[in-house]
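User: Hi! I'm working on a homework problem where we have to compare a predicted structure to a textbook description. Could you give me the structure for the chain below?
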Amino acid sequence: MILTLTPNPSIDRTVQLAGPLARGEVQRVTSVVSQGGGKGVNISRAAVTAGVASIAVLPAHGEDPFVHELLSAGIDCRPARPAGEIRVNLTITEPDGTTTKLNSPGATVTAEHLDALSRTLLNRASSMAWVVLAGSLPPGAPADYYAGLVARLRGGPAKVAVDTSEGPLAALVDALPGAAPDLMKPNGEELASFTGRDPVTLESDPRAAAAAARTLVERGVGSVLATLGAHGAVLVTADGAWHATPPPTSVVSTVGAGDSSLFGYVLGDLRGLPAPERLGLAVAYGSAAAGLPGTTIPEPGQVRPDLVVVEELDTEERERDD
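Assistant: Happy to help. Predicted structure tokens:
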């Protein structure tokens, strides 16, 4: 079973435009889709869609329509006392797949709100195969909130994955190895933020990305899944490094693609797949999600790991070149 934590959930509203976005003009909208979201929620959706049991922990009132929507989707939702209303995030998608996101900050939390959220998570972690901490933190939360949770979860029966950015990511890296999770999932830009590498180079050069990701493994992280957009993803573990190239995809929306990739990796681990196949399944899930509108989670039949090409990388050769 997968337990997910979304400290700053959102109502994700996706607007599909009929043409390119033009500032200051009135434009035609082809569709508007709203659903409960946030990185952890998206991963729980993917799990349920794939027939894997999942519990989603998040701050919300028990009677909030957000919670009822998740329950109706088959997601076991365990709400903790919220600080305020759930935020609304707006995504604008153009016909060529270009995505513009407008994310609101969310309600400001106190230590009491965070303690309640942590208790709700930790009370259930011992019976899980994976615990996934995902997304931004709400205003008022200390940047090291995730790092503290990972330190408390380490040594337990559940494997721990973290997918976050900016301050919380930097705080997690600073807390290594004491707060090293089993899996981290940065993208190229996030990988560059704490390695000092050029983000454009990391996204376009899998060997450079793998060499940067290896610095995390050397500091105690079990595995690093670095997503590189159209260039696929790399996986680095203590045993090696691999790059996966996605199949040709007509990109509709990249929102939630990284969340689907993370779930694909976890699903591969639950199935006992070796590292290259876990990576292939992660990239297959991400590319399938990118071909769907909004934050739509791919059905298992839409995921084609057989079309993903995985190759082993020599990161030591890249480091010598540098």
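For your comparison, note the following. The radius of gyration is 19 Å. DSSP finds eleven helices and 14 strands in the chain. Good luck with the assignment!
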